Amino acid sequence: MKQVTKAILPVAGLGTRFLPATKAIPKEMLPIIDKPLLQYAVEEAIDIGVKEIIFITSHAKKAIKKHFLQNKDLEESLLRHGKGEYIQSINPEKFKDIKFTFVDQNEQKGLGHAISLAEKCLTEEDEAIAILLPDDLFIADGKSCLQTLADLYNETSSSVIAINEVADEKLPNYGVIDATKISDSTYEIHEIIEKPTIEEAPSNLAVCGRYILTSAIFSSLKKILPGSGGELQLTDAIRDLLNSEKVIASSYKGAKFDCGSKQGYVEATISLALANKDINKDILKSIQALIS
Ligand code: UTP
After folding, report:
1. What is the pLDDT of residues 51-73, one digit of tens each?
2. Which of 19, 29, 135 for mutating ligand 1's site (highest number of atoms within 8 Å of CB)?
3. d(Cα 57, Cα 94) in Å, to the nearest integer?
4. Which of 76, 200, 202, 239 has the most CB atoms in a 10 Å sphere around its CB?
């Protein structure tokens, strides 16, 4: 079995829930403290050994390409102004040997459609790929969410997806699984439904935005029809994959923020601010003053 070396990050969505902020700035480039949301997911992928990041993007999101490619002019300008210490932050060592690929999704036909566009970037060597939805920000204490999936994939050679438990009223926002528990934190999936009603939901186990899927997912993506919201859904392709392969769910217990929603975005900002040694004391004082 080959190591997972490619990750797909779909970032072509319209970000309507964050308008007007996302009129000119891609949602994925909104900062959590001083780093764009997207960079947290990129770093999580690089940390498991990914060597190529495939962004599914749109022509309206030029800032994403600009952010991940080297900017010699800015580096020279920082040096001229005696601020060379900032160069590491705009051109991190971690990005040195990483290939950033940009694939345009011209029409937002859904997450399944976005992922299908990455097929041309894969070779026969790629037995599986990582998929990260950057809206979901995971703050791991130890092993990252994606690393846990990668370890499980290396152990089982099966597709693995991250799940967490959500309250009934949140189920209609997610893909929800029906599954049998196989260990403390893993399940074998039998069924997966995108955005079910509370009555339809087979469990409270919802898919969160990290996946390692075998390359067979691309055949499944070719078979699906528009589903929930009239969009081509990755969940429906995973349901098709279940007909031919085992798919494992791994329960994620660490902190996770849905930064595609205003509430999750603000919670993530507060949480990372309180974890940041440079500012946490002052932020805590401000919060205490606001609520007293
Ligand atoms: P979301 O539905 O959460 O993102 O898609 P969105 O469409 O940008 O947000 P709203 O609902 O309009 O506020 C999950 C992920 O899939 C990507 C999004 O960019 C996001 O990272 N996506 C979605 C695509 O790349 N293409 C699509 O056609 C749809």
Report:
1. 999 999 998 889 999 999 988 99
2. 135
3. 22
4. 239
> Distance between CA atoms of 69 and 113, rounded to whole angstroms?
26
Q: How far is CA 49 from CA 98, 228, 276, in A?
A: 10, 34, 26
- 126 CA to centre of ligand 1 in angstroms: 25
> Going from the N-terminus, what domains does the chain have, and what CATH number goes with each?
6-260 (3.90.550.10), 262-292 (no CATH)
Interval 8-36: pLDDT, tens: 999 999 899 999 999 999 999 999 999 99
**What phi and psi, each to the nearest 5 degrees, are found at residue 211?**
-140, 145
- The rounded Å distance from CA 258 to ligand 1 centre is 12
For ligand 1, whether the C-beta of 173 sits within 6 Å is: no
pLDDT digits (tens, 9 = 90+) for 125-160: 889 999 999 999 999 888 999 999 999 999 999 999
Distance 12 CA to ligand 1 centre (A): 6
- Closest C-alpha among 4, 16, 89 to residue 52: 4
**CA pair distance 207, 2, nearest whole angstrom:** 25
Atom of ligand 1 minimally distant from the CA of 108: 28
pTM, to two decimals: 0.95
